[in-house]
Amino acid sequence: MSNISVNFKNSNIDSKEIMVYSEEVEKIHAMIDKKANSKAELLGWLNWPSKYAKREFEKIKKCAKRIQENSDVLVVIGIGGSYLGTRAVIEALTNSFYNLQSKEDRKFPQILYVGNNLNPTYIKDMIELIQDKDISINVISKSGTTTEPAIAFRIFRNLLEDKYGIKEAQKRIYVTTDKEKGALRQLADEEDYETFVIPNNIGGRYSVLTPVGLLPIAVAGIDIDKIMEGARFAQEKYADSSLKYNDCYKYAVARNILYKQEKNIEILATYNPKMHYFIEWWKQLFGESEGKELKGIFPAGVEFTTDLHSLGQYIQEGKRCMFETVLYIEKEEEDIKINFEDDSLDGLNYLADKNLSYINKKAMQGTINAHVKGGVPNIVIKMEKLDEDSIGHLIYFFEKACAMSALLLGVNPFNQPGVEKYKSNMFRLLEKPGF
Ligand code: PA5
Questions:
Q1: pLDDT tens digit sequence for 131-187
Q2: Residue 409 C-alpha to ligand 1 middle, in angstroms?
Q3: Mean pLDDT value across the chain
Q4: What's the confidence (pLDDT) of residue 53?
């Protein structure tokens, strides 16, 4: 099992400062642990890796196989927690150009995402791209009433019905939603679509390890058993109530200490473009969990070295309001050696025989040193490699750290009352009945 470690040496925080929080952390730990199996609390994700329904899991695999066999494209319809984790895992664990690979190289269906915006050009362009291919749809919405995916589903359901006829379309539509509630559940029951249940006690942004994420992830040929093994390993590893032995809680405490030092922004940095959507998932997890009651660290993301040529200047010399957490993947899957050239017109012979992964690592070390010297405290989360079990582990690590961090801050990690504000304005402007 690949491990994850957290290094606070450049965080500007003394380990004694962290330990001051021991009692508070133990109290919160005991409180969430006690409620973990309650149907009424949104804490179902806590023991999920060891408790998930194995029968549902087999159904996921069976449906994934069917989609792989009869489809060129799987259209994933969802927004926020109903698609970000899925996309994060698929992009982290497949070829960097998965959707652009030939069918033979890719082996599994293309995965495309819709229902995460209201832009007509995006939808038109997607329809144009896929209309001649064989398509399946996985529509995901816990509430079953979210406008963006509901509109996309209507459009793509119509597309499938026109293309295949109602009966065949029915077999190509997979619905992931609440067991009983919501318009999507009603529609799925009436149309007899294959359905997957999102557990009541797991909220959207904590749901990637449920059918929400696992069906499309399995369709992309990723081993979902291994993902769950990694998550299960993390569940055991971070079950320790003692702050001293729990890196996940230490990270949560460190964030709170830095926040008290007016570090109001956390930038999560990666040196691997495959982690772009993982950062998007992390931004939603922390942003929606903590940003309320006029509190919370603003979660931002950067991809280095790309963003060293855009946001790097601000990070180095702009307002000192941030800290940086680097997601460091120790071992690259692939490497490239730099050649020696007799004339060295590009001046690169000093790098001859060096691997690109080595150069990337030096860029990371140089950047961390520069940022720390410039007043940006740094935390490093190191993964041995990027694979199924480490992604499962990392997801669980952040989910638990996020809950602890929000509770230390004194806010509810599992609601998102602010999200309703734009909706009611939009509905009023659209003259939706009742608004
Ligand atoms: O974390 C959350 O609960 C939200 O981000 C939801 O996932 C998002 O709003 C989508 O909601 P739904 O799955 O109900 O369509």
A1: 999 999 999 999 999 999 999 999 999 999 999 999 999 999 999 999 999 999 999
A2: 22
A3: 97
A4: 83
Specify the ligand 1 atom closest to the Cα of 81.
7
Nearest ligand 1 atom to the CA of 203 is 3
Has residue 1 got a pLDDT over 90? no
- Tell me, yes or no, if the pTM score tops 0.85: yes
Protein residue with its CA nearest to atom 9 in ligand 1: 80
pLDDT in tens, 388-399: 999 999 999 999
Q: Which atom of ligand 1 is nearest to the CA of 148?
A: 15
Ligand 1: residue of 118, 143, 292 to mutate (most ligand atoms within 8 A of CB) is 143
- In the reported structure, the alpha carbon of residue 195 is separated from the centroid of ligand 1 by a whole-number distance in angstroms of 18
Site to probe by mutation for ligand 1, drawn from 45, 82, 202 as the one with most ligand atoms within 8 Å of Cβ, is: 82
pLDDT at residue 2 is higher than 80:
no
Q: 420 falls in which pLDDT band (50, 70, 90)?
A: confident
Long-range contacts of 282-288 (CB under 8 A, 24+ apart): 282/398, 284/80, 284/81, 284/84, 284/205, 285/205, 285/206, 285/398, 285/399, 285/402, 286/398, 286/402, 286/405, 288/80, 288/81, 288/205, 288/416, 288/419
* Cα-to-centroid distance, 126 and ligand 1 (Å): 23
Ligand 1: residues with CB < 6 A are: 79-82, 141-143, 146, 149, 203-205, 288, 416
Segment 239-251 shows an average pLDDT of 97
**Catalytically annotated residues:** 288, 309, 423
173-201 pLDDT per residue, tens: 999 999 999 999 999 999 999 999 999 99
